[in-house]
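Weekly structure sync, notes
Attendees: PL (lead), two postdocs, one rotation student
Agenda item 3: pending single-chain targets
PL asked that the sequence for the first pending target be pasted directly into the notes so everyone works from the same version. It is reproduced below exactly as submitted, 194 residues in total.
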Amino acid sequence: MIPCYWLAYAVIKIVNPFYFPLTIRGRENIPVKGAFIAASNHVSHLDPPLVSYAVRRPIYHIAKKSLFKNKAFALLLYSLGSFPIEREGSDVSAMRSCLRKLKKGEPLALFPTGTRVVGDAEVTAKAGVGFLAVKAGVPVVPVKISGTDMVMPKGAKGIHKHPVTIIIGQPIHFSKQDNYDQIAAQILQKINSL
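Predicted structure, written out during the meeting:
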């Protein structure tokens, strides 16, 4: 259960016309029930709440552990469905938490690059998204966000008005025989092609 999901949804619905007019395409590709992984590109701190908004279902997120240092902010993150992950190395505890959520039928949002990537920087996807897709046996829904890097540029103190587009692709299913790194690369390629 995500206590503040619908409150956050309502806030975004109210403010988006003024700060980041949204165009969302492909919402029909979101499974109406059951677990799935929404795998998105990541260019701004605004991306996690907008993925949640686009999905229109309570969805869990993992966030870097350092964001949970402040107790008040950590409480807010937990209430919005986020839980911590150690980005360096493999965080077995966080992976187990992700698997538990997926096996209980809860959707999960992931950013396969593991961090924000702006511009044409060469990046590779983390194998974790492939591992979770195979181990949980759930579809991966690719999501591409554009424009949020102009609304909240890296290092910026405030918000700049700019339109945002979110494209949601068709669910992808993977076989248990597929290699995790190859799956992750395929997912990232699919996101980039949307």
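Discussion points:
- The chain has seven helices and seven strands.
- The mean pLDDT is 89.
Action: rotation student to compare against the earlier draft before next sync.
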